[in-house]
Amino acid sequence: MTRPAAGSLGAAKARPGRPRKPAPPPPPWVDAFLDMMVAERAASANTREAYHRDLADVATFLAQQGRPALDRAATDDLRAYLDHLAAGRVKAGSSVRTVARRLSALRQYYKFLVSEGHRAEDPASVLDTPRQGRALPKILSEADVTAMLSAAAARGAPEGRRLNALLEVLYATGLRVSELVGLPMAALTRDARALIVRGKGGKERLVPLSAPARDALSAYLPDRAFFMTRGREGRQQAFLFPSRANAGVLTRQRFGQLLKDLAIEAGLDPAKVSPHVLRHCFATHLLDHGADLRSVQKMLGHADIGTTQIYTHVVGERLKQTVEQHHPLSGKRKAKA
User: Fold this and answer.
1) Average pLDDT, integer, range 80-85
2) Complete DSSP assignment for 94-160
3) Cβ-contact 207, 262 below 8 angstroms
4) Do residues 62 and 24 touch, judged by C-beta distance below 8 A?
5) pTM above 0.70, yes or no
6) CA–CA separation, 43 vs 154, rounded Å?
7) Per-residue pLDDT band at 1 (split at 50, 70, 90)
8) Domains in the chain, please, with CATH?
9) Catalytic residues, which ones?
10) Are 249 and 239 within 8 A, CB to CB?
11) How far apart are CA 151 and CA 273, in angstroms?
């Protein structure tokens, strides 16, 4: 049986001014497991390192608690470790997401041990995955979006007209950024009142365009040739928003940067602005004004309406804040009185 060399899993590094913590005995099969992940499952170097860190953390906990080593741990030992994480008794990554990720690493490790004949049973097979809460989407107010639209409309010149068209279309349709920048000219219907969008899984959906979005596109279209390179028009002609970049189309990264620059012009924090935030704004503002959830689902291209329902929680939370701030019987209003 080959054990990891010094400095591999379980070896603690000394830090200046801090006493060295005793390292747990190195688990004998971890290196073989990590090599298998790379060779058989094409795991990247980053993935290999992530599994290494996760298993090292478990091994350290077991050693510090006087429990069996990682390769001999029982279900109760692993459950104690997960409870330790969930209780937040460690500095790094005690979130539900971290617990779930480390449990995934443990499950794959013990499946490997069983398949290789190093263990007769899998102690991780009966452990429950923690439920992950879903964070509410970040959005801008309608006034913030209006400020950005006004700043884009005031720019002029081909670059300004293209950015104004991109922003108006994004806020009118809620497209994913990859769908927006990759729109072909053929996506624009003959009367220019809707877009035919090919989304995830190659599924097509019809998304209506607002009057401001149609006007912005009409103002921009005569400038499309400005963004094409002589001799390369063939590829660029296919896109609604071509670019002189090597790809022939505006990249997601470049559009994201343009939005942040525009946010600064509009007096907004650029860290709070991104194409995906504007997609959230589209959905949330529609629901604020009475749109039904099923229609929003179709326009966003969500396969499951459960994904769209997160926006109802955003609306509910905002209504709650409005009541707390403005209702005459709310605690905040009483305190001001």
Assistant:
1) 86
2) -SHHHHHHHHHHHHHHHHHHHHTTS-SS-TTTTPPPPPPP-PPPP---HHHHHHHHHHHHTT-HHHH
3) no
4) yes
5) no
6) 49
7) very low
8) 30-115 (no CATH), 142-326 (1.10.443.10)
9) 176, 200, 276, 279, 302, 311
10) yes
11) 14
